[in-house]
Amino acid sequence: MSFTGKVAFITGAGSGIGRATAQLLASQGAKVAAADLRADTAGETAAAIVTAGGKAIGVGVNVSSKAEVSAAIERTVQEFGALDILINCAGIYPRALVVDIEESQWDQVIGTHLKGTFLCCQAAVKQMIRQKSGRIVNIVSGIALNGARRGSAYSAAKGGIMSFTKSLALEVREHNIMVNALSPGPTRTPMSSWGSAKPGDPSYAEMISQHPQGLKEPEQAAQYIATLAGPLFDNTTGRIMHF
Ligand SMILES: NC(=O)c1ccc[n+]([C@@H]2O[C@H](COP(=O)([O-])OP(=O)(O)OC[C@H]3O[C@@H](n4cnc5c(N)ncnc54)[C@H](O)[C@@H]3O)[C@@H](O)[C@H]2O)c1
């Protein structure tokens, strides 16, 4: 797959799936804005891409701030001259029972995932409409459909992103902008509760009993994302792909 000449803005690119996606798209020719709340890790991703011969900038941004998101997208367009692809990978997953969860924590989870996805899509779509084309991949989770004990805010946010993806797809199809979502399945990243599980561990057996497809590496999730951002999805929009 080639992304030569494409400009991609990837949130959560300082870690896990976002970082793997930034590196994969860059290795296939994309110019990448690696965006993350942590400017240091975003910078590390960009530096690794540049060292490998690619083009990238690191961007510190809190996706739940409209002003910061607008400035980050603006900087990307100034630097690379366009915005073709948005990947919304930023996320947090603090666990708490509904009876215990603090209002501030609820707001932070919804703010990062649901509002963050909305704000990044809104800012990106304004540019993509000018370009008359664009690709957006939002990251959701099977937890949106199945629920999770101590994961109500996360599951509600991801369910909201699924609905939002479908509505946005309907609004921007006429501008040749495709909006899809990926549910990557359990993936070995700092966020995943299965992150340290290894074959042979009791926790690995428990994970397999719930997710027979097994624990993925972030590079595999990145391949799925690249597929949704690539030519196979040239005319496909509003889909939620579960892996
Ligand atoms: N790992 C899994 O098993 C799994 C499964 C399903 C879905 N997901 C989703 O995949 C996406 C990527 O998660 P990951 O597993 O790579 O996690 P991760 O913790 O490795 O990466 C998440 C990144 O998001 C950044 N971030 C957090 N809040 C932010 C904010 N307000 N603004 C900008 N950046 C922010 C973090 O700094 C971090 O670098 C998330 O949306 C997550 O919900 C992960």
Describe the SSE topology.
Blueprint: E1 7-11, H1 16-27, E2 31-36, H2 39-51, E3 55-60, H3 66-80, E4 85-88, H4 103-131, E5 134-139, H5 143-146, H6 152-172, E6 177-183, H7 202-210, H8 218-229, E7 240-242
Parallel strand pairs: 1-2, 1-4, 2-3, 4-5, 5-6, 6-7
Bound molecules: nicotinamide-adenine-dinucleotide.
Précis, in short:
The protein is an alpha/beta fold. The chain has helices spanning 16-27, 39-51, 66-80, 103-131, 143-146, 152-172, 202-210, 218-229, and strands at 7-11, 31-36, 55-60, 85-88, 134-139, 177-183, 240-242. The chain has a single domain, classed as Rossmann fold (3-Layer(aba) Sandwich).
Walk me through what this model shows.
With 243 residues, the protein is an alpha/beta fold. The chain has one domain: NAD(P)-binding Rossmann-like Domain (Rossmann fold), CATH 3.40.50.720. Helices cover 47% and strands 15% of the residues. The radius of gyration is 17 Å and the shape is globular. The two termini are 20 Å apart. The structure holds nicotinamide-adenine-dinucleotide (NAD).
